[in-house]
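ok posting inputs for the N-(aminocarbonyl)-beta-alanine job
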Amino acid sequence: MRTLIANGTVVNADGSAEADVLVDGEAIALVGHDLASAGVTVDRTIDARGRYVIPGAIDAHTHFDMPFGGTMSKDTFETGTRAAAFGGTTTIIDFAIQPRGGSLREGIDAWHAKAEGNCAIDYGFHMIVSDVRDDVLAEMDQVVGEGIPEFKLFTAYPGVLYSDDGAIFRAMQRSVDNGGLIMMHAENGIAIDVVANQNADSGHTEPWYHGVSRYPVFEGEAANRCIRLAEAAGSAVYIVHLSARDALDAVRAGRDRGTPVYAETCPQYLFLSLDDLGNGFEGAKFVCSPPLRPKEHWAELWKGLQADDLQVVSTDHCPFDFHGQKEMGRGDFRRIPNGLPAVEDRLDLMHDGGVVGGHISRERWVEVCSTAPARMFGLAGRKGVVAPGADADLVIYDPNRRHTISASTHHMAVDYSCYEGRTVQGGSDIVMSRGRVIVENGTYCGSRGDGRFLRRAPTGDALRRGVA
Ligand code: URP
Ligand code: ZN
Ligand code: ZN
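and the output
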């Protein structure tokens, strides 16, 4: 199958140009001018006049079918990757979880079983390490070799996923040897639990107290600690879902010292705030960790994205129904499952709030949503770019079309939207995954199981040297 995408504006991270794109089979064959007149023969021509042609977005932080907070995140790999495709995302990287007391192998096998044959788009895994032991450190080397080269550890969630400083330090040391990358959920979970329990014991049980118990300084302290541990280990470190100015300051200070520290933020920290947690139990819809912050943090995060102190925007998509799941925490905010749905909305929110809102250029939008995650997670040249030889993961994006986000029209398997009623400018008209149109005119036209597992090369060494 050969497809010519004609007359569009090709937007890459390093620049934009009016150009045609020739797709041959699964890959991009040519990007050039007036390819139709040059006599290329094709099966289909798509006129992209007035629209952008961008690399499919990459969401490097999702949790599909994840056991958490006494329940399971609501999107499966089937529903979650299909919803992602509707929103212009053509690659996701989810987190396989080592069961506590078990092996990494068990986690990886479980996640392959969940994903294989079910995905609409290509997918990869990072590995959550919940229990750092000698045998697990050795197993990390094999896991890197299986194309799963990042390991997420937590300074949060004591008794569940928490690792102490020694465990984190040992994993960082190991990553220097095996080329992997340590990702950190940086919040001081021990201190948070003290405040959360004090609030709950005083009768403050509403969702708002989830937000106010998790002080920004607890995130800043943990981020700084992780960065300092990485310095001591001589490793790179990637801070996930950074929400607070305090943590960004730690990242900036680390980068100023020359530490290879990288970080992502998420749309919820740019567009939602602590206020959203405040409407009685409705606030449960907005419970995630780190929590939503006061609005004053937004401007700093935008500055971080502009200055490249934050390199990536991912979703941390971890959806739970309001009815039946978030409701588990009625009367005790500590029992509300943590996480928000967003995989379908990220690209449009970042276009509307970021590009149309004047915070970032359209090229930077493509970079933080696609090119940078490809570069940082071993997919450079293959994904995240509109160029000959790359996979034809392409989105024909209308920068002027407006639509209103709603749970009644979204495709995520969750009964509410954090952005209900918000009108955004920009939308994915046609989405292609390796040369096949999988979404067109608001209709899914792919098949379950089209998505392939991506074995990814480790980038830890390159990131450590600052050359990824
Ligand atoms: O609230 C969140 N973030 N839930 C997902 C798990 C995590 O920490 O990433
Ligand atoms: Zn986390
Ligand atoms: Zn997460």
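notes: The domain at 55-380+455-465 is CATH 3.20.20.140 (TIM Barrel). The two ends are 33 Å apart (CA to CA).
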